[in-house]
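User: Fold this; tokens only.

Assistant: Input:
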Amino acid sequence: YYYIINIDMTSAIYYSSDGFKVAGNKIMGRQVAGNSFLKAYFKYSNYKEFWVYSNSKKEAEDFARFAREQDRSEKIKFINFQNTGNLNEPGLLFYPGPSISLHAKRRSFYNDNSWSLCGITHTTCSERAMESIQSLVTSPVNPWDALICTSKAVRSNVIKIIEIEEDNMKTKLKACNFVRPTLPVIPLGIHTSEFKFTQDQKNLAKKEFEIHQDEIVILYVGRLSFHAKSNPFALYESLGKIAEKSNNKIVLIECGWYGNEGIKSAFTQAAQSLCQNLRIINVDGSDNNLKLKSFAASDIFCSLSDNIQETFGITPIEAMAAGLPVIVSDWDGYKDTVREGLDGFRIPTLMPGSGYGIDLAMRYALNIDNYDMYIGNVSNYISVSIVHLSNALEKLINSQSLRIKMGKNGLKRATEKYDWSIIIKQYVELWDDLKDLRINSSNYNYQWSARLDPFSAFESYPSFTITNNTKLRLTEGSVDITLKKIKKLKALFIINYSIYTIPDEAFISKLISKLNNNIMDVNSLSEEFTEINKNYLIRSIAWMNKFNIITILID
């Protein structure tokens, strides 16, 4: 299932280290996903060159280091924000988040079909994420742009936001034509080879964690957060009761990390209250070696997400790749990845129906509750069936043959469906389709009304504007005196603070020479400097007039 993809088109990666780096004790799912994607991007693509779009050379160099670490030696081309128009060469910009609306507006300074945009969903319940999806309705996105949805559930959520905003536009503005980006469902991938362990590796891992051969190990991997990931109540409640009556010795490995000491203390308190007879091993999940050993040492994987910030969930697939049977909540992306009764069990979930949570949205909108409190409040109304969970746990704890059977099914599914070599191919096919749509599209150029040409937006402010008939002359009447004056002026910070606006020195010299003892209009100068962009000429004249290098003759 591993192969290199041959691709005709190219793509640029929007690189900010925050979206791809995995370090420290505050690792987020989007960073894990971004890091894994970039490794796969380098491993399975057959590009002859790579493009990186970053705000700074430092970020681009970080991208280059990442590529070299993955044994890619091809040329890396850097496009900075000042040269955004060069994105038309790779033809597509991949942004590691859902906020493609802003990039569509930035693209409007060029042609709307100059390149495609491709974003991806991570959490979709934060203020920023929801507003970025909402803005797709009124921003210049096109069918040759895409927002990858990592699960069917998250695609449904994205469409819900878009449809409500379209209805708002219909009601308020009588709008009837809406353009949406492509919304494909492409799951996240994993490097399945990382999770294949020999029996010796499994035995060694158990030994390092001081796990005995007669103990059944349940594993949870991920951020340990009761309000933002998975409330441990259902698992603690079920395992606590099973451990009391089971003939098997049960161990729970919690491989993850806490956001702070308060959250850690809350987990400890809950475990002591709900499952005090259960042996719990805490493992630092930010250490990848320890994470892999946790998979190797375990018999059953369990992840009971009950939070709206979850959209896909990568750890059950990692567990499947490790040959473990999985127990997951029947929630969001878990519905797509885990097959009930084949790879493991999906435990029913329940929450109130539509219309019963408007106060929660209002409190978040009014900043009464911050993001963490908002998702925590919502989570407290979402439950996982403890009866079904207990039944699933007991079946797997009591049957080694069932564990082996489901583990084999999951391993085959993870390898054939979720390995990055398979997923990257889906990305490339999508990007090829977007390219075809873009190339065959009619050109329409959106005007970003909030970022208009300032000389257009504020054209009513001045007394006069520079036109083709505007006449000018040197203020000093001498080329030498004028050049000395310019040198003196350019040393002043009130002028040189804005380096971008200062005309090129060679061009100024030529322009001054043409004006020597002459009065000329803009049209004549334009004919003299055919190699110079008209915008540049007009703005150079305006700059020189501001600092009294030339004098514009006003009737």
